[in-house]
Amino acid sequence: MTRRQFLRSSAIASGIGALPFLTTRGADRHVLENRPVFDYTHPVWNRRPAPTMAVSADELKTALGMACDWLVDIAQVQTETLTNEDNTRNLRHTFWKGAIRGEYSAATRKWDFFCPVWHTGQALKALVWSAAVLDRPGYLDAVRLGAEFIGAQRVSDPSDPDFGMIGGFEDKGDEANTSAMLEASEGLLRAAEATGDAKYAQWVRDSADWILKKAYRGHGYFADAYSTTKKAFVSYQPESPGRPLLDDAVFLRVYEQTKEAKYRDLFYETAVTCLKRESPPGNWVDFWPSSRAKGQNHPRSAYWWGYPMVFAYLDSGKKQYLDCAQRAGEWYIHAQRLDGGMFRNTGMDFNTDSFGHATSGACCAMILWNALWQITGERHWVAPLNRALTFSLNMQFTHPQDPNLKGCILEKVLPPKDGTDASPYQIRDLGTIFFAQALAKILRCDI
Question: Which fold has domain 3-444?
Answer without folding.
Answer: Glycosyltransferase (1.50.10)
